[in-house]
Every structure is written in structure tokens, then in C-alpha cells.
Amino acid sequence: xxxxxxxxxxxxxxxxxxxxxxxxxxxxxxxxxxxxxxxxxxxxxxxxxxxxxxxxxxxxxxxxxxxxxxxxxxxxxxxxxxxxxxxxxxxxxxxxxxxxxxxxxxxxxxxxxxxxxxxxxxxxxxxxxxxxxxxxxxxxxxxxxxxxxxxxxxxxxxxxxxxxxxxxxxxxxxxxxxxxxxxxxxxxxxxxxxxxxxxxxxxxxxxxxxxxxxxxxxxxxxxxxxxxxxxxxxxxxxxxxxxxxxxxxxxxxxxxxxxxxxxxxxxxxxxxxxxxxxxxxxxxxxxxxxxxxxxxxxxxxxxxxxxxxxxxxxxxxxxxxxxxxxxxxxxxxxxxxxxxxxxxxxxxx
Length: 349
Ligand SMILES: NC(=O)c1ccc[n+]([C@@H]2O[C@H](COP(=O)([O-])OP(=O)(O)OC[C@H]3O[C@@H](n4cnc5c(N)ncnc54)[C@H](OP(=O)(O)O)[C@@H]3O)[C@@H](O)[C@H]2O)c1
What we know:
Blueprint: H1 2-28, H2 33-39, E1 44-49, E2 60-65, E3 73-83, H3 85-92, H4 99-102, E4 115-123, E5 135-139, E6 147-151, E7 156-158, H5 165-169, H6 172-185, E8 194-197, E9 203-204, H7 209-214, E10 221-222, E11 235-240, H8 247-252, E12 254-262, H9 274-283, E13 290-293, H10 300-311, E14 319-324, H11 328-336, E15 343-347
Parallel strand pairs: 8-11, 9-10, 11-12, 12-13, 14-15
Antiparallel strand pairs: 1-2, 3-4, 3-6, 3-15, 4-5, 5-7
Bound molecules: NADP nicotinamide-adenine-dinucleotide phosphate (NAP).
């Protein structure tokens, strides 16, 4: 009995301490918003910054210090940048569990945007692969700005001449995710049947049926009229961008040796999609199919591969809407509503 009491006291003490530490970390959580104004002198550029989490109104277009490329970096003048769900997740700091890494009370990194396409303006002394004037595309935090500085070995690759800056900027995160999901996770083989749920990639609503067919889908399922989990068709790979069906329902239409790849999941304020990911992990132990989840990694090799596919006309970027950088709030708000048709891009002069 005495032992139990001791354990209870120690546990209560540990929990209180952890809670206190969390509160202190929460209130001390800060960012460089104040310093940026003092630093902004001389060589300036326009960039979108946000000092607090919140709705699109927290985004501000400001003049901040223009980056200077290090020896191994290229300075890219951004001509177009595309918007991804990741941008509004970071903007809102939602789901909250992501704030453990992104900053508890305020965003640690005050710049937003990843996907960009533009022109190399300057290169560091050790850069060998790029020269000023080269047209490139890739991914770099802070892409909603006039310039980004990128290590030449990281996510930067030549832009194919036959696509526009807007098209090239629409590719990195979305297409690398699709590529890695199908090639590395789904390990898709010729002749296999693949179902893509969401992102208007294979299952979509009525207004997107023709667009998806034009991109090469053999069969398009309008989710407002048909439920693919009730269908007779069976698949070798399911790539799920939405997570709006139960896992068991989805596995029901997957072949016994098939692969279910979870790319996106249900949206929620606190911890979604963690519960679905946890269920997938547990379920994967008891079913014959592979239940997989992954986070795409931007890299130069895959960007180059996708650049070649675009050049050959095999990947066709679909840009639905274009906004000016000054209209980023509208662009993010539109994407966040969840019904973009293809990609949403912001352009810069
Ligand atoms: N794991 C990773 O590394 C990774 C990387 C990138 C993205 N993601 C995640 O993948 C998901 C998709 O990203 P995205 O860039 O394609 O987002 P998005 O552009 O916002 O996707 C919007 C598309 O989803 C479709 N959609 C909405 N509800 C649907 C439903 N119930 N059934 C089928 N389709 C539906 C919409 O079509 P309608 O207008 O016809 O409804 C629209 O075309 C997001 O959750 C994102 O966070 C994950």
C-alpha cells in the first residue's frame, strides 16, 4: 500500500513537472519576427512572413533581407511558387501536434512556401552545376519570396524549356509525392491496377472527371456518385490522399498481396491523422496486404527525373489558378477549402 502511494506521488510529481516545463516552453516559444525588421537594411526583397499561427490574415508581404548565396549555394530569382496543403498546415500550426517541431506558441520559421521555379541569379564559388541565367525548379522553405538560396546538391534541377515557370513550380511536392508513393512504396509493376483516391487523380467529383481522364486515367470514379469500396473492382495498389473511408473498407477492394499507401489522411485540429496512422500500423500486423504510410522527401534525382518526364510530355502539370504574390492569402484560403483542381500557383515578376 505504502509502495503504491509512493508510486502515485512520484507519478503526480513527474506529470506536474512535465506540465510546468511544457507551459514554460510554450510561453518562451518565440521567433525572429522582431529581429527581421532591424536586419532589413540595404539589400532587400519582398517575402511573405508570418509571426503568429492563424488564418490567412496572419500572412504579411514585407521587405526583408535578400539572401546571399554561400559557396555551395545558388541564388534563385523566384518566378512562380505553388501552394501545398503543407503551407496552410504550417500557417495555422494545425494539427497542434506538429507544433512540437514547428514552434509551440509561434512559428519558429517565419517564412512560408516550398515549391518554386525561377532563374539562377548568382552562384557561390564552389557551384559547378548551375550558372546565372539557368532556369530551375525545386523546393526550398521560404519560396513565397522574390529570392531563395539553395544548396546546389539539394532540391534544385533544370527546368525543362517546354514548360512555363508556373507549370514547373506546380510539380515538386505533388509529383515527388506521387512518384515516391507509386514507385518506392507501392512498387507498381506494369499491368497492375492502381486506384488513386483524391487529389483528383483517379477518384474525384463530377466537375473533375474530364480533367482526370485527360491526364491518362483508364477509369474515373466520381465520388459523389460511386463508392469505390463498394465496387467489384480489385486493385494491386491503392494510393490514398484523402483517408475518408475506413481502412478495412479500403483493404476490402485490395488484392491479398496488394499495397495500401496512405499519403493524406483525415484533417483535424489536434492530432489527426495520427489515429489513422496508428490504426494502419496495428492493422498491418494482421492482414496479408502491406499497409504503408510515408512522408515524401524532396531530392535532386527525383526532380531531374520529373523534369525529364515533363520534357517528354509524359507528366502534364495542371495549373488551375494563378495569383500574384500579394494575393497569397486568397491562394492559400482557396487551397485550404479542399477542392482545388490541379495546382494553385503564385507568380512573381
Ligand atoms: N505524405 C506526404 O508526404 C504528402 C505529401 C504531399 C501531400 N500530402 C497530403 O496529401 C493530401 C492531398 O494533397 P494535395 O496537394 O493533392 O491536396 P489538395 O490540392 O488540397 O487536394 C484537393 C483535391 O482533393 C479532392 N477531394 C476532396 N475531397 C475528396 C473526397 N472525399 N474524395 C476524393 N477526392 C476528394 C478534391 O476534388 P473535388 O474538388 O472533386 O472534391 C481536390 O481535387 C493532403 O492531405 C496532403 O496533406 C502528403
